[in-house]
Structures are given as C-alpha cells and as structure tokens.
Amino acid sequence: MLNHPIVEESFKIIDREVGNHNFTREEYAIARRVIHATADFDYLDLLQFRHNAIASGITGIQNQVPIVTDVTMVKQGIRSMVAKTFGNEIISAVELAKVAEPGKTRTETGLLNCWDKYPEAIYVIGNAPTALLALCDRITTTNITPTLIIGVPVGFVSVVESKQALARLNTPQILTQGRKGGSPVAAAIVNALCLLAWEDHPWN
Fold first, then answer.
1. What is the residue extent of each domain of the chain?
2. How far is CA 85 from CA 3, 64, 116, in A?
3. Within 13 Å of residue 198, how many CA atoms lie on the same side as its CB?
4. Which of 14, 48, 67, 189 has its CA 20 to 30 A from that of 58?
C-alpha cells in the first residue's frame, strides 16, 4: 500500500460523509485526496476536470514526463509519492529564477524558462496566478499543448482571472473554481494522479 494507514482511515471517514456522488472513480479519488488535505468538502463542487485531463495526466506520469511546479512547497508535497511510483523529474519554477525579469514575478520568470525546456510537461500551479496567466498566454501564442495543467492558485489578486484564462483553453486541465486552492490542493491532485497511474499500470 502506498497510502499510510491513517490516510486510509481518513478516506473511510470522508467516504461516509460524502455518501452518494456523481464523480467517476478517478475523479472521486482526486476529490477525496483534496478533501483529506484540506478538510474542506467544498471541493466536491469546486473541482473541474476538462479535456480528458485525468487520462492525459495518468499517461504522462506513466511515461515519466517532467512535472513543473510553481513553488517549492508543491514540489515538496509530491516528492515522496512521485519517488514511490514513476520517479518523474520534478522542477520548481521559482527555484530556476534567482531574480525576476522586469515586470514579472520570480515564479512567472521561472515558469517561462521551464516552458522553453519542457513544453510537454505536467504544469502544477498551486500558489502563483501570475505564473498560470503567463502559461496560458504562452499556450495561446504557440501550437504546443502540455500534457496537463493543474491550475489551483489561491488568493484574491488575479486568482479568478487566471483560472478563467485556463478554462478558455482547449488543454487537459484540472482546476478549482473561485478563490480556493493552494499548494496542498495542488500536491493532493498530483499525488492522487500518481496513485491512479500506479494502479492502472499493466503490471498491476
């Protein structure tokens, strides 16, 4: 088992409280892990899965495509599960930018550098809406589609706008509506995808 016994016990409690739902098996696995990370059942209504997002994410993880996170906290939150499953390379965008380019944040600067190197990556944005906006802008000006975008920044400035920009793209994506999200949500989604990829792999 890749989950700690306490996590499994928490899942049983969540299952009892959720009861009947309209999620697919894969969608619910992600939603349940997000609820576990946040103790917030609002995510049952806030999570959205678009353009074959889960299947694309699972295939990408199994094929060991790089995972680009906006901040180090997300990277730290997924490192253990990624290592236990398919060992994808994890790159934190903010760590690549010692200084910000003029008019940009460090995270935005680092993410655009990542795009130049890993356009096919899984992009995970849990903190920085500026990075998500920059990513969406870059996609609209190219014909390149990343494997998956997880767009769940949290906060008040540009957060809703960045998610709206993502929703307009015909790109595999998992997002949360509104202001809620954050690094724990982003990490939970990736960890759930890693488990799904492991369970669905032909060797199991």
1. 45-200
2. 12, 10, 27
3. 18
4. 14
